[in-house]
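Problem 12. The chain below contains 411 residues. Write out its predicted structure in token notation.
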Amino acid sequence: MNRRRRIWIWTAAISVAVAAIGAILVYLRFGGVRPVTFTEKDGLLLVRNDDYEAAFDATNGAFVSLKDRKTGETLSTGNRDGHLWWAILDDRSSLNSRASRSFSYEWRPSSRELKLRYDGPLKVDVTATFSKENRFTLQAVVRNTSDKTVESFRFPYELNLPTDRIRDALLPMLPGVKLNDRFFKDQNSFEDQYPGVLFASYVAVRTTGGSLAIYDIRESSVKPVVLGFKNQIDQAGATGIVRDYKTWIAPQEQWTSPRIVVQVGGDYAQSIERYRTDNGIDRYRSLADKLGDRKDEFFASPFFKLDVAAARSDWTTLKSKWLDRLRHTGVIHLVAFQPGGHDENYPDFFASRSPLGNGKRLQAVHRLRAGKRKSGRSVHEFFLVGRQRADAPQPAGRRETRGHRRQAQKR
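Solution.
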């Protein structure tokens, strides 16, 4: 083989290798799919990948539409009345994104982030981070420069869905609620709070044009939020996705929302699994692991609800009159000791009704733990302690009432 031929072979081999390395780098960079693109067109900010297209109003940052590019269909027709966010103040007045003194935006291609900035009594910075997958995230930082407390922050504000295209929807109410299309066609609405009646900060809906799921990724702390679906009385044929965070941002204080995932496409199973892994639930110890050698006994035990009001006992006599008389292994669930009666302020279980005695006496009952032996049998205690609900009995200094909450929901 002459020298010229060898040089040609080596050159060809090097070219092939360079092309292969380039293809690998492109695949690693873009995951084998078209990258996220940003376009400004006809007053819209368009962010696309192979799975979705999110269109924002260039004048105020609100969602104008959200499309599933796999099906070619529009899932959401945008925020209600063109507001990306809406805040309720403690004097029942409100502020919203369209009423801000100024608005600006910036696209950062290296991080695939769209920055939306609002100036006014509320200084709000929204970051939308776009993924090569079928989802993107939203996060808001709210600085309150007004002289009023911000009771709640609705974000993103009521993304509308065409009601006649909804097939069904999921809400995380034990053991799980699936709303069929008739619920929406009959112009029904439902919303409630997580943590509380809802056990996850997650809602999802399937339409004739594809699926949409929205959920929070918990970071340093749980952010209470009212979730649900709302029939839009003033917009015939539309259903809004409710997301109303209970914030209580004092003047000159700052609040940061969770990262909110918006998943376009995929079915319920996919978004539920992502909620589980994104929030680290897959790393929780199982109940069987926590119970150890007692798990089989616990799982085989009957479940007893002890109605404290009907028992006509206080915390000092409840154990001797009722718990010590049980002849069977069981799980004890104490109920009906809250102000207002059973589950009146679910999931809050404190404080108890005053005739029952003080908290120290309740703690004495609480110390009846799994493993207490009586006549060769076990008594397991099962006691739920919930997080603070917005309309539960409030500590001193809290001013929100059930009436306030209902008024806010009507806005």
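Discussion. The two ends are 85 Å apart (CA to CA). Students who got a different answer should revisit the alignment rule from Section 12.3.
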